[in-house]
Each structure stands twice: as C-alpha cells, then as structure tokens.
Design a protein that fits this description.
The chain is α/β, with parallel strands linked by helices. It has a single domain, classed as 3-Layer(aba) Sandwich (Rossmann fold). It is 47% helix and 16% strand. The structure holds adenosine-5'-triphosphate (ATP) and magnesium ion (MG).
C-alpha cells in the first residue's frame, strides 16, 4: 500500500472515528467509555495541518512554507500560515505584511485570534510570530496550552494550516511536529543538512511512531541530486529507526531567491515561470496526492490538533 492509499484510508477511518492519531491508547479509557454511552464520538471538521521543519537552520523552510501557502490559497483552499519560529519569526517579511500584534500577544491573552490574523496581499492568512523576543523562544506550559487552543480554533475554520517551524529540536518545535498531520522535512543535498534531518526523524519517531514525514531537498544544483540525497536519508531512517520516508521533490538553487528584496511579494506569485516556482508547483501537486487530498476532514474532538498537542506535551 503506498502513502496515497494510507492517506485516504486514514481520512476515511478518521471520518468514521475508528482510529486515533495518538495511537491505540491515545483516546483513553474514559473517552471510549463516554463514546459507548453517547453512541460514538462527536465529530468536527478540521483543517489538514502541515508542519514545515528541518534539523539544520537555513535550509529554506520559510521560503517553502510561504510559497506553499500562496499556492494552496490559489487552489481555492482556505489557508493560514502560522509562523511557529518562536522568537525569530520572519514570514511577515516574506509575505509583505506588517504585524502590530503577534503570537506573543495572542498567547499572553492581550489580543484575540482575529486581531492577530492578517490577510497577505497574495491571499493566504498569516498568524505572525514574534521577532527578536527571547522569552518567546521557550514558551511556557500555559502558552503552549493557549497555542494548542488557538490552533484548534484555526483548524475548525480553515482547510489547510501550514506551520513554519524554527530549525532543530527545541521542545515547542518537536511538539508542533507531533501535533501536525504531516511533517514536511526540508533538507539540502549536503552531509550536515542530511545528518540533522535524520536527527529530527529519530527524535520525533521515538515519541510518535506514526509520524508521517515527507522530504523536500532544497537548493539542488544538479537535477536529480535531490532524489539521490533523499535515497541516502530514507535508507538510514529505515535501517536505524524503522521509519519510512516519502519524497515530495526537489527545489533548484536559484540566485533569484536570495536576491529577492524585502517588501517584494513571493517569487511564486510574481514569477510563476521561474525555476523555483515550477518546482514548487510540482511539489504542491505531489503533496495533494500523497496526503490523499487537502480538504478538511471530520475528526473526533479528542483526536484533533488541539488534543494531540495537549497529549504530547505531557511527554516532552
Ligand atoms: N531554492 C533556493 N535557491 C536559492 N536560495 C534559497 C533557496 N531556498 C532558500 N534560499 C535562501 O536561503 C536562505 C534561508 O532560507 P529560509 O529563511 O527560507 O530558511 P529557513 O530554513 O526558514 O531558515 P531558519 O532555520 O533560520 O528558519 C534565504 O536567504 C533564502 O532566500
Ligand atoms: Mg525560517
């Protein structure tokens, strides 16, 4: 069975409330007893959540996450990009918006979700993060709970949530990966980035053996080298941690990306024929296929993103 089938099967199972994303014990005895009394769990509509992560910094997560949000919006999906690079957020600059309040005020209770959300000129909404706020780099437990609640609220309204993470394995970053439906791991065809990508896989898979990884190789110089790098990574992940990875595709290295000036809109919107834009289009097509569609699905209340966040946070 390939991942497409698995994605579809999981969606169907979730629609029927058959299977917990948290594993067999995830829903707990109490939840199952209540289901028995009520005649089944209450289902609610929820967006597909995609965490964009990496081990090494600077692999191109924010470039990919902002581009993906624009492309998904253009496909008619209600999309929100959440800047989860706690303390070092930058997606607002890439999307050309100027936030006055951010995730910091939202999690501190000084602003509401609707006050913080911005609509970017290219269409997708942005939940901006705080930049240069050291305290936000390590959110407190209360802030993490508030974050889980706000993600649950967003997921109830939207079709897709794209979560742009900071590099590495800080607790809040790992938690966000564990809470998401899919983890898009961005790496590069060089040893340091591949070694760090493996470290993330190992770390997340130890906490959730069902975590689903899709790999993107960015800044590829020679066509096909991205897939070769993926093959090395997937072999190591399979052998050492028993995790099966899936290849989403490669993005070429193009100076046009680095030359992009502050205030300009994403290349994928302004230059759809650019080499990186064509790669991103293909990648989005494949994402849709591998995820078995990107429409919202029905999930039991205790299996949604908010519940997954709350559960996993206890194990960090
Ligand atoms: N395909 C590409 N071709 C050329 N330059 C790229 C490409 N992708 C990303 N870059 C450049 O690499 C740099 C890092 O990209 P980006 O900020 O998206 O990485 P990141 O993984 O989000 O970094 P961080 O870990 O700091 O959050 C930026 O200067 C960006 O313009
Ligand atoms: Mg970034």
């Amino acid at each position: 069975m390939d991942l497409t089938d698995r994605g579809r099967q999981m969606q169907k199972a979730q629609q029927k409330g058959e299977r917990s994303a948290l594993g067999p014990r995830g829903r707990g005895l109490f939840g199952r007893l209540l289901d028995g009394i009520r005649g089944g769990p209450t289902l609610r509509r929820e967006a597909v959540s995609i965490a964009v992560a990496s081990g090494k910094g600077g692999t191109g997560k924010s470039f990919l996450a902002t581009s993906l949000a624009v492309l998904l919006h253009r496909r008619g999906l209600r999309t929100t990009l959440v800047d989860c690079d706690f303390g070092l957020a930058c997606d607002h600059l890439l999307l050309g918006v100027k936030p006055t309040v951010t995730l910091q005020q939202l999690l501190g209770g000084q602003a509401t979700l609707d006050q913080v959300l911005l609509t970017s000129p290219c269409g997708p909404r942005l939940l901006p993060g705080a930049s240069g706020v050291r305290r936000m780099a390590a959110p407190s437990d209360r802030e993490l709970l508030a974050f889980a609640r706000e993600l649950g609220e967003l997921a109830a309204r939207d079709d897709v949530l794209v979560l742009d993470l900071g590099a590495g394995i800080a607790p809040a970053t790992v938690l966000t990966m564990l809470g998401a439906d899919w983890i898009v791991l961005v790496t590069q065809p060089e040893i340091a980035a591949l070694v760090d990508a493996y470290a993330v896989i190992k770390c997340v898979a130890q906490l959730n053996e069902r975590a689903r990884f899709l790999v993107v190789t960015n800044r590829v110089g020679t066509p096909g080298r991205g897939e070769l790098a993926f093959q090395r990574l997937t072999e190591v992940a399979r052998q050492h941690v028993g995790v099966v990875l899936h290849y989403l595709g490669e993005i070429v290295d193009d100076a046009a990306v680095t030359q992009h000036r502050l205030g300009q809109l994403p290349l994928v919107a302004t230059e759809p024929e650019a080499a990186t834009s064509r790669c991103l289009q293909r990648l989005t097509d494949r994402l849709e296929v591998l995820c078995g569609g990107l429409s919202p699905r029905e999930v039991a209340g205790d299996q949604g993103i908010e519940a997954r966040f709350k559960q996993h946070r206890l194990f960090l």
